[in-house]
Amino acid sequence: MILIIGGSGFLGYYLHHNFIKNGQKVNSTYFKHRINEEYFHYLDVTDKKNIHTIIQKIKPDVIIYASAITNVDLCETDKNLAKAINVTGLKFTIDAAASFHSKIIYISTSAVFDGSKKSYSEAEKTNPISSYGLTKSMGEELVLNSNLPYLIIRTDQPYSWKKNWHHTNSVLRVIEHLNSNEEHLEISDWYNTPTYVPDFVACTQKLVNDDHTGIFHLVGSDFKNRFDFALIVADIFGLDKNKIKAINSSVLKLPAKRVNVKLENKKAFEKTGMAMSNSIDGLKKMRKIQPV
Ligand SMILES: NC(=O)c1ccc[n+]([C@@H]2O[C@H](COP(=O)([O-])OP(=O)(O)OC[C@H]3O[C@@H](n4cnc5c(N)ncnc54)[C@H](OP(=O)(O)O)[C@@H]3O)[C@@H](O)[C@H]2O)c1
Fold it and tell me: What angle do CA 170, 172, 176 make, to 5 degrees?
């Protein structure tokens, strides 16, 4: 039995439905966004008792912890909230999982690194520079020291169609602005490895099915700045790229510092045989399918 904590979220919801599609037994949790579907349960990860009750009831072999405060600026301005969800909730989960020796799968991020290296393999030491990155790296430490079987899966800039309650993403923002004939301002000094969510989900599924353990980077196969990526989005979706204007992130005066981190995805390919799409291929696949 798989339990996805944070199954109502953008990645959690994709994972949940992919496991169902593959005939696997899965239960998931929501918090503020009630999901009126079978196999979904309410859970507040700040409530230790609530976590213990759910885990005792489901008795999961595998727990995917996808609950998080993912808004990097909110994590900077409300460090207690970031720590409560990204770290303490995970600690309660690990404690409750110990009696079932459940495998813990922790979804993490490129923000655990400081960006000083040209690229990062799974073997590199973490050194976060933001509150978000710090909480995610603390979460990774908890998993590494848990004595439970584990996977730490780091990803970056996930994009795909979404449900109406999910936060938007870098691709949908471009499509929405250009479709409504608005100018689209895009940052040219932030670089990412954009990740097509169905690739992330398929590879996670394979890692689970084949019982892999350790740290994996499930990210797209190219490193692009956000402006160049937006131009590719416009190209693939047949939108007017002249409406995309480059800006420097310094004009936004955001609370959290960001760094450019290129995650390498070689290990995932070597272990699973599954290749993660580059931007052009991922966006072409996305264009072919209907919004979920
Ligand atoms: N999105 C990105 O850009 C990105 C990039 C790299 C890594 N990641 C990592 O990927 C994972 C999933 O991200 P995502 O984009 O899918 O996140 P998301 O859409 O923001 O979902 C967050 C999930 O956390 C749940 N949650 C929030 N507060 C909670 C609480 N007190 N108790 C229980 N659940 C709570 C939310 O439930 P409700 O919505 O029902 O309240 C939701 O299911 C995270 O670990 C994140 O760090 C994300």
Answer: 125
Percent of the chain with pLDDT over 70: 99
Atom number of ligand 1 nearest to Cα 67: 24
Could you give the CA distance from residue 150 to residue 171 in angstroms, rounded to a whole number? 31
Q: Assign residue 238 a region (left: φ > 0; alpha: ψ between -120 and 50; beta: otherwise).
A: left
C-alpha of residue 45 to centroid of ligand 1, in Å: 12
DSSP state, residue 252: G
Mutate to test the pocket of ligand 1, among 70, 72, 152, 215 (most ligand atoms within 8 A of CB): 70
Distances, alpha carbon 263 to alpha carbons 104, 154, 206, in Å? 22, 9, 20
Taking the model in full, what pTM does it have?
Answer: 0.97
Question: Does domain 2-159+195-219+263-269 bear CATH number 3.40.50.2000?
Answer: no
Q: How far is CA 90 from CA 84, 118, 119, 188, 223, in A?
A: 9, 31, 28, 34, 30
- Asked whether the predicted pLDDT for residue 108 surpasses 80, the reply is yes
The pLDDT, as a whole number, for residue 292 is 58
- What is the rounded average pLDDT of the residues 30-34? 98
Domain boundaries, the chain: 2-159+195-219+263-269
Cα dist from 232 to 174, 176, 197, 235, 283, whole Å: 10, 15, 17, 5, 8
For the chain, the distance separating the N- and C-terminal CA atoms, rounded to the nearest angstrom, is 25
Distance of CA 148 to the CA centre of its chain: 22
**What is the reported pLDDT for 291?**
73
